[in-house]
């Protein structure tokens, strides 16, 4: 049964993981080509959804960390490391829709990481969501922020 306010694509296992995460914990939303199962983290399989759909759904529930230098990390393209993959612009737009800093909407800071450094960072995430995303470099790591006792996102 669907829950009020919870996007219908979010499975119960993901709700549990999001609720279990603490401030500063990171979550990887991975594309279909990412070696999710070999990273040694818990994997939630959502192959019926794209990475952008999952990011949008997750951000309705998860606050981004306003204290960190970067709220998200993406993988640099191997063949063109100075140029963002097309999906990164979509990620940035989605992040900006849900991110607030100092009480106002603000662009989230996105770190660009070389491929193997991204794989290393993936091994330290709290969990991985394996999506059906077929666009190349459709991987993003997001950092959880803080919610206070009144339910408001805390700006540290």
From TrEMBL:
Signal peptide segment: none
One MF annotation (Gene Ontology) recorded for this entry: fucose binding
Uppermost EC category: isomerase
Stored InterPro entries: RbsD-like_sf, RbsD/FucU_mutarotase, RbsD_FucU
Domain of life, per lineage: Eukaryota
GO biological process, one term: fucose metabolic process
EC number: 5.1.3.29
Catalytic activity: alpha-L-fucose = beta-L-fucose
Keywords, sorted A to Z: Isomerase
UniProt feature coiled coil, ranges: none
PANTHER family reported in the protein's UniProt record: FUCOSE MUTAROTASE
Protein name: L-fucose mutarotase
Species annotation: Thraustotheca clavata
